[in-house]
């Protein structure tokens, strides 16, 4: 646990929910929905220990879905102590099936999968549904989204069946007295019409949580915690200009003003005018008017010299990561007496890097902005966004006065343009790429398309193609436009940008950049392709 977590003010998290992860792809979605409702929650692994549970002290527990079968010998179990903890439980999909099985009900494998939209007929009263169905309209059904094979065919003693769908005779069950509930459908997904209201009912009415988790409270709480933890010491922050590190900078500027030192490494792999943009953002004190030390480390030459002659994408990435650490470490050594190093780690990083309590079931993320700083640096870590989802980080940034140009910026990879110049990185290629990228991004803004796509950029292809300008032959480079739509960047589809728009961008690039003879548009989705080309 980071020092920051230990020092945090607990008031905002007095009323919290524990989400137990049984491996569902929607576990994070459950947590995000609860945060949206205004309730703090954390995701722990399905095999949480009694001690961990007691230390966390939630007011309710939600059991996620998962790929296992409750009918299998080795299916994951709900920890038994939860059933006697007197804390309300809500099992979703696998969570409901495991609950039914462990408490003496019956679950069977179903030959027919139920997937997608379904209607759940409500046959009995349940306090989980109070005020959810419109009694004036005599509403007796829910519009839900299902994704399951197994199904519960008899409920444990003390439970009653509340609703059924075409393929699930028991799509909802409850032991009202003990506050144990099961839903075969997924209330966390957008397609379940009354889903958010059901979750809200569970956490607010049944678990008696107050909605304390909101952006204003979060800013106040974080500012107080940072001040408490840092006291009069100095904090070093590696600022990349991306959303996460900018929000950390704004938060620290507001909390500790001139005790903050921001270091921005110009690795020569940045976009056009990026250094100036970051400088401008910093000089306004990130909207807070606070003054603090800002250092730009000019390391273009070091990076580009080392990249010379290197063609392999993985070698390029490693080399850039290592060089970054070296440059940053050298800079930090010159700044004596600094106690804290701040990082823009956010909650999905914590979950995905298996550092979180729920981490066991997750894949380790291979992308890192600051690629593991050496452990022998004698800093204490401060990670104020460690408990926040990306949308919460953005909201926090807005609260802190950061401009939309920063908040709504598309992600930019740690290795920068080096993964967008295929093969060997050369200054000439970078320069062409910067110009083409600026045209594409500017036009996306002009046409109101920038916010509609999740990420967009240009890729430089070091191959030459023949063209014709006036009466002369042209033999120059090729660039590709890339734009994707995605929610989590794990999967993505190529964005269907209008032909007229693509035509305009292509003409501008071909007319304005003489080293380019051909513009292509990447129509590959992820998987099987990746978003970046290298
Ligand atoms: P891929 O290419 O793997 O990219 O589909 C998924 C998302 O991650 C970004 N990306 C990185 N971000 N360091 C980062 O901070 C990296 O090394 C890195 N590589 C890819 C990519 O831009 C996309 O948003």
How would you sum up this structure, described in words?
The chain has 534 residues and is α/β, with parallel strands linked by helices. It has three domains: 3-206, Class I glutamine amidotransferase (GATase) domain (Rossmann fold, 3-Layer(aba) Sandwich); 215-407, Rossmann fold; 420-521, GMP Synthetase, Chain A, domain 3 (2-Layer Sandwich), CATH 3.30.300. It contains 15 helices and 20 strands. It has helices at 3-7, 27-37, 50-56, 94-102, 195-206, 215-230, 243-256, 274-283, 300-307, 313-334, 347-352, 390-399, 404-407, 427-446, 499-512, and strands at residues 16-21, 40-45, 60-63, 89-92, 106-108, 114-122, 141-148, 151-154, 160-164, 172-175, 180-183, 235-238, 260-266, 293-298, 340-342, 380-382, 455-469, 472-485, 493-494, 516-521. The strands form four sheets. A nine-stranded mixed beta sheet has the order 2-1-3-4-11-10-9-6-7, sandwiched between helices. The chain has a five-stranded parallel beta sheet with strand order 14-13-12-15-16, with helices on both faces. Helix 6 crosses helix 7 (243-256), helix 6 packs across helix 12 (390-399) and helix 14 runs antiparallel to helix 15 (499-512). It is globular and about 80 Å long. The two termini are 34 Å apart. It binds xanthosine-5'-monophosphate. Xanthosine-5'-monophosphate (XMP) binds at residues 317, 367, 369, 411, 413-415, 455, 489, 526, 530-532.
